[in-house]
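Deviation from plan, reported transparently: zinc ion complex.
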Amino acid sequence: MAVGDRVRIRLADERTGVIEEVLPRKNYLSRKAPRKKGASFRGERLEQIVAANLDQLVIVTSVLNPKFNNRLLDRILVASESSEITAKIVINKIDLDSNDERSQWRELYSQLGYEVFETSAVRKRGLKELETALGGKTTAFWGASGVGKSSLLNALFPDLNLKVGEISDYSKKGRHTTVTVSMVKINETTWVVDTPGIREIEPYGLRKEDLGHMFVEFKPFIHDCKFNSCTHYHEPGCAVVKAVELGKIDKKRYVSYLNILGTFEEENTY
Ligand SMILES: Nc1nc2c(ncn2[C@@H]2O[C@H](COP(=O)(O)OP(=O)(O)OP(=O)(O)O)[C@@H](O)[C@H]2O)c(=O)[nH]1
Ligand SMILES: [Mg+2]
Ligand SMILES: [Zn+2]
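Because the crystal trials were delayed, the predicted structure below was used instead.
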């Protein structure tokens, strides 16, 4: 069972119930269990389900402190594309962004078709737009540790009173303030899910030859590759590589793609 699962219960008496059935999931967000947790079975790392039955995912990033991590963002986007959950992107901590570093990222990802919000949880900027996007939906907040997921949820819904990190220097890694996934009801139709920050993510059960389809901007080119099984790396006649060379696909995204592709060399599926 996972957070967000719907179940059928049988009432044992007036106060207790027994779960009889977990109802089929509409969708779920997952990744490979992190290596360090040792969650593996006969050498295969297991699937870790973050939350089930989501309407959308809000991927929270911060422009600084910690520095914007586009590689991690691209990996989370792959996870959301492969589970067919709509992703929206938040760039938080814009109060720290005196050199406007965020614009290039906003432009890149909004050109790909993702909705991008710019916020400051501490200065309470951009919150109205984000709140509107959450209305009537079940939304999980996911992203690196320290980017401000819990702070944003508190700023939007002060009653939540979620625990937020106290240190302000996130260049020192290894702090995780939120340690469990929690789902909270905001009103009759709106639910939000706060999750622990992640440092690494490897989507579960994705095949190497399908990875390109998780990069939305590759899709128009993929069918022009010479080989059906093209992994858009070393094969001759690759239309994706050509599009990168012509500047039709952003190099940073292609580097992310190669980076993920490289992890397939270690294991068959990942
Ligand atoms: N300057 C600035 N700091 C922020 C902002 N949002 C959050 N912070 C700070 O960033 C730190 C981390 O915030 P959290 O809300 O705990 O981050 P988180 O993403 O929930 O982290 P985990 O629970 O570890 O995954 C805290 O010290 C916050 O005060 C913001 O918009 N601007
Ligand atoms: Mg948190
Ligand atoms: Zn190709």
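The mean pLDDT is 92. We consider this an acceptable substitute for the interim report.
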